UniProtKB/TrEMBL annotation:
It holds the Pfam family PDZ. This is PDZ domain-containing protein. One of its GO terms (biological process) is protein localization to plasma membrane. PROSITE patterns: PDZ. SMART domains: PDZ. GO terms for cellular component: apical plasma membrane. One of its GO terms (molecular function) is signaling receptor binding. It comes from Eleginops maclovinus (Patagonian blennie). InterPro entries: NHER (IPR051067), PDZ (IPR001478), PDZ_sf (IPR036034). Residues 326-353, 468-510 are annotated as: Disordered. Belongs to the NHER family. Residues 8-89, 122-202, 228-308, 363-443 form the PDZ domain.
Length: 510
């Protein structure tokens, strides 16, 4: 597939959220199209563009599959999914030239850089009533045992097993040099599930005369994914207790507080903690792990696994760190700044005017209550710029439309972008019982700055500020709360958007 290089993009979504795009098939258009990218969503930040075509989902070629099959594959991936995608122009040209887009010599790239994608693979199979759906055989003159008779749609097929894959390990134990009978017996004794380490023909040739083990493998075919969770400490901490299993030297998160940062980011009761800020904690004692978390300050990144994911990795005698390392090395999404520097979409999916209207700050006014304004002002030492944190639900700031991570541009008509934290705090304190702030969502702020646009009230156009009344005017409070968040379309609006599309197309929000 010379000249056509798919990009490899890995997306992770938070619980209750989407990957931030629609997957569509359209009349007179070939392929599975990326549409309606959510501004600031995982897909846009990772570099997906309107009109991109999805070629592979978790390594499996999908260009010839139906829309519903691809949607199902993405949904079954859980919170993390890896795509091979091709830009619209390249896809159309490749199709016109009759290029085989599934050709193994295609060179994946991760965020614009060519990468080596030849790895053994871990495949986890859970037996169904009809078995696993494969056979193994030996080949005359070739060492090892090979997969054969992989039934389409079977457990093995869905797990990523292919005909002619060579079997290296069963449940973390090498079977190279084992007889056919010995391997069959191992599979029978495995119970209702099994973990294979396999290598396809091309990868096998690549590693010829080299030792191959699970430490080299890709985990992209595994059905259960560890979760990478970034948590910002609240006023009462992260909102969980750390519990050590002294017999196994591993650590669990328990007693998750309702409404805490941990719960909001998707931590579940008795999730096992694998790593803190990229450092594995297995083998560390309780005090050492507590110190690692404390040293992280107010923001910490955890790698956690639930019970099913933990059991799966243990079945293969492999650490979930493999997932973290693969995500880091091959397909880490770009930062906000990197994403802003990527080429613009080939064609917008919404009217240009609508997109421009989204790049606006918001002017919020609030009246102080007995509990204050109900937010924290945060800043990073040595770096200009203040942002909003810990907006109290139902408080004055919440009703005025302030949201966590909003960037503060003006306080009572004075630009504070270059002011120190202490100066801004003093301005707020001296404002009396009412406060007016010009703010911008962090994603909007970053994009406007990247374009060299000064953020002022002039960008508001005809949009007026959100006036939040005190408890003396409850009748108007609900109406103004709705005005406070114009950026998010209602469910009814989303339904109208979907239903207005042509009957010659299918789309699915992912």
């Amino acid at each position: 597939m010379a000249g056509y290089k798919p990009r490899v993009i890995s997306l992770t979504k938070r619980q209750g959220h989407t990957f931030g795009f629609y997957l569509r098939v359209e009349h007179a258009e070939e392929g599975h199209l990326i549409r309606c990218l959510e501004m600031g969503g995982p897909a846009e930040l990772a570099g997906m563009k309107d009109g991109d075509r999805i070629l592979r989902v978790n390594g499996e070629f999908v260009d010839e599959l139906s829309h519903s099959e691809v949607v199902e594959m993405v949904r079954n991936s859980g919170p993390t999914v890896t795509f091979h995608i091709l830009d619209e122009d390249s896809y159309v040209q490749a199709k016109a030239q009759g290029v085989n887009l599934s050709h193994p010599q295609s060179t994946p790239v991760a965020n614009g850089a060519s990468k080596q994608d030849l790895k053994p693979k871990l495949c986890y199979l859970v037996k169904s009533s009809s078995g696993y759906g494969f056979s193994i055989r030996s080949e005359k003159g070739a060492p090892g045992l090979f997969m054969t008779e992989v039934m389409k749609g079977s457990v093995a097929d869905r797990a990523g097993v292919n005909v002619k894959d060579r079997l290296l390990e069963v449940n973390g134990e090498s079977v190279e040099g084992a007889t056919h009978e010995e391997v069959v017996e191992k599979i029978k004794l495995s119970g209702g599930s099994i973990m294979f380490l396999l290598v396809d023909e091309e990868t096998d040739r690549h590693y010829q005369n080299k030792k191959i083990g699970a430490w080299l493998a890709t985990a992209k075919h595994l059905p259960h994914k560890p979760c990478i969770i970034e948590i910002t400490k609240g006023t009462d901490g992260f909102g969980f207790l750390l519990n050590e299993d002294t017999t196994q030297k591993c650590h669990f998160l328990k007693d998750i507080s309702r409404g805490s940062p941990a719960e909001r980011e998707g931590v579940k009761e008795m999730d096992r903690l694998v790593a803190v800020d990229g450092k594995e904690v297995d083998g560390c004692n309780h005090g050492q792990v507590v110190d690692m978390i404390r040293q992280s300050g107010n923001k910490c990144c955890f790698l956690v696994v639930d019970k099913d994911t933990d059991q799966m990795y243990k079945k293969g005698k492999v650490s979930p760190m493999l997932f973290l390392e693969e995500t880091r090395d091959s397909s880490s999404p770009p930062s906000y700044t990197e994403a802003l520097n990527l080429p613009a979409p080939v064609r917008p999916t919404t009217p240009v005017q609508a997109r421009k209207e989204e790049l606006k700050p918001k002017l919020c006014r609030m009246e102080k209550t007995a509990a204050g304004y109900g937010f924290h002002l945060n800043g990073i030492q040595g770096i200009s710029g203040q942002f909003i944190k810990e907006v109290i639900s139902g408080g004055a700031a919440d009703r005025a439309g302030l949201e966590d991570d909003d960037m503060v541009v003006e306080v009572n008509g004075v630009n504070v972008e270059q002011s120190s934290h202490e100066e801004v705090v003093e301005m707020i304190r001296s404002s009396g019982s009412s406060l007016e702030m010009l703010l911008a969502k962090r994603s909007v702020y970053d994009q406007l700055k990247a374009k060299g646009v000064s953020i002022t009230r002039l960008l508001l156009g005809e949009t007026s500020y959100v006036q939040v009344h005190t408890a003396d005017t409850p009748e108007e409070e609900e109406r103004h709360e709705e005005e406070a968040r114009p950026e998010s379309p209602t469910e009814q609006e989303r339904e109208r958007t979907k239903s207005s599309s042509s009957q010659d197309s299918l789309d699915e929000r992912l």
